[in-house]
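User: Could you check the structure of this?
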Amino acid sequence: MRPWGHELWMASWWIALAAVVMWLTWTTMHGRTRSRESPTPEEVLRRRYAGGEIDTAEYERRLARLRGRPD
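Assistant: Sure, the predicted structure tokens are below.
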């Protein structure tokens, strides 16, 4: 009778390796598609407000203008 420990370990190793390669491929491809998309003007404005570049009044004024409402 032959022990199966070595074969099971090798099969597990190859399955784990394949899973890591698939995960890396997916994250790389997903990252590329996300980086091609440019942020919307509202997202840029939100980031500037969150970063402290503009105050609340300026944020609300610019947001209203982006959404087509008068000041």
